[in-house]
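Lab meeting prep.
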Amino acid sequence: MIASSIFSSGNSLIRGCAAALVLLCVLASVNAFAWRIDVTNPADDINVDPGQVVNLNATALEPDYAILWFDVSVGSGSDFPIVTYHEYPEADAIQNSTIDVDYTVPSDLPAGTVLQVVFYAEDVTDNPITVTRNLTINATVPDTTAPTYGGSGLGINMAVRMSYNQTALIEWYPATDNKTNAANMTYNIYCATDSANVFSGSPKTTSTGTATSKLITGLDPGTTYYVGVRAKDEAGNEEANTHTLMIAPLPNAARGWALYE
């Protein structure tokens, strides 16, 4: 009888321990999938340059569904964010929603300005959580680097297509720059009758943007010309290639030229 009682008590104890173990496993499972926002970029507070593109990447981890968005404000607690981005509106909320966007830092804010990026998320019960990253704007660094000229289709820095009516079409490959994009590049086209002074004066004409050709007009059909092209960035830095082409009058043709490298 005593042995039976001890055995029964032992079974109860085992069942109690098993139930407790199951509960612990359940709790551990719940904690393993804790409701949270994982921010990949930026991983911490960072310094940024005016106009810099910063990747913002975050995921709201929730077992049912989540709404995820972020605000960018000047300073903390601003009621007027300069950017608000919603990845998923409430009607389209999904499990583990993710933001992955490129944000361009304003170029008109003074050095030392702190942009506060706040990632927000709400779960199925409208329970909100936030994660904050601060972006501090660096002082503007003057651009002193000239563009890199792109070369040309003839294996040189430019090409000239023959034309009549006192004109010549100049062509070149686009330049690249550390700050200025192709759409904002300027090309100065120089033209002179003296090969030693092609680049000594002002450009005869200019071309801006992605265009890589320009028609030179007002040429004298009986005169030999030397032409050159240099790229200039938004900061006014002009590269200094010295390559020129000679355009000489064609024999027995009063209105045309031949190209000589």
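Slide two material, second protein:
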Amino acid sequence: MTEIAEMIEDGTRALVEESGMDSGIGFPTGLSVNEVAAHYTPNAGDTKGGTDTWLRILTAVLRESDVIKVDFGVHVNGRIVDSAFTLNFEPTWDRLLEAVKDATNTGVRVRTLPSLVFAMSLIIRKRASMYVCATSEKQFRRSWSHTR
């Protein structure tokens, strides 16, 4: 995993012609696998973790059955761009990714309405809750009752 993060960061540095505070990577690359939702950055010195998933990530080789969320940033002349995408290599995660994409697109569509953020979140929540997503290991269905 560390090699993947370094490859992305080195590529970013080369593309924007890294120049100290003027341009370069915006933040450490996030590579979150499976149920780790976001913002995990692999570090070469990591040696511990609280779960089997964390232990595997820390010493990781990305498996064909994994889903990985990639989040990276670029800054140039004080402006930052954040980009994120999800990859899966076989159909285990397809339904979950479909649900996330549909909910995200719903949020993008309703953002132009003169609505409050809370109202938008209710619309997105309703859309996402239409999906039940199962993998061979776990079933994912978000329970929103605690947020009301």
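Talking points for slide two:
The CA atoms of residues 2 and 44 lie 6 Å apart.
Confidence is low (pLDDT under 50) at residues 138-148.
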